[in-house]
Amino acid sequence: MADRNKRLDSNVPGNFYVDATCINCDTCRQLAPLSFEEVGDYSAVSRQPDRDLHTHQAYQALLACPVGSIGTEHSDKARLQTAMASFPLRIENGVSYCGFNSEKSFGANSFFVEHPDGNWLIDSPRYIKHLVEAFERRGGIAHVFLTHKDDVADADKYAAHFGAKRIIHQADSDAAPTAEWVIGGEETVQVGAEFQIIPVPGHTAGCIALLYRERFLFTGDHLWWDSHGKSLAAPTRLIWRRWTLIESIRKLLDYPFEWVLAGHGDRVHLASTDMRAQLRALVERCEKGRVLR
Ligand code: SF4
User: Closest by alpha carbon to 92, among 216, 253, 266?
Assistant: First the structure.
């Protein structure tokens, strides 16, 4: 819960504010980009929401913030409940963003896929009653897909509650030593007709991406959309092996997809030809030795 005594001076005056406990994870800026901006080492309210949609998004950001750094001087319970009910937030075709990002994964995004053969949770949000009940209403969870060792958060709790199978790569399996399915090597694994698990080592040795319907690519921290640069981006630090990372980015040129749904960083939807061009441009920037962003 935010503390108005710690309200940052960088917030504009008004109802919403960020306090000094912010860990600068970017979640609020993704959810409510017209209200939150990065100022120095923190986020801040750069413009108070003055329209219904923007107020709704600011309340969604308040709920999703992993450390409760966003507060209001005067809470509107009805709007807060509406924002709560919006999670998991539907994106397209049974794919949702979970919200309620976890501090354990430094505020990484997690996603939920509804599928007739069993639903998938991709990385883990906080374990909270609202999400457990929402997942129950949507048919439970059969698979918990862990993109890499940093974003496991409360995966064990969701897996235990739903009897789900946790999937992780062997190289990162110390983060989930009792996982039911450990992926090995660098070959792509087909799961049913519509899912492919693609090893993409680089950020960590055991990064894996999940491709769904050759349309949605869940990337963890391998790739994301840089909304300022309007381009795909990849890690510039905290890299296990830089050249392995570049090869893993290049590898994705073999797969068609239109969505990048990332753990950290923005998500994006592009035509598959534009996505491929973005990917190629990122590989070229990497190969030329420029910064990866
Ligand atoms: S979501 Fe919370 S912790 Fe993350 S940047 Fe915004 S205010 Fe800071």
Answer: 216
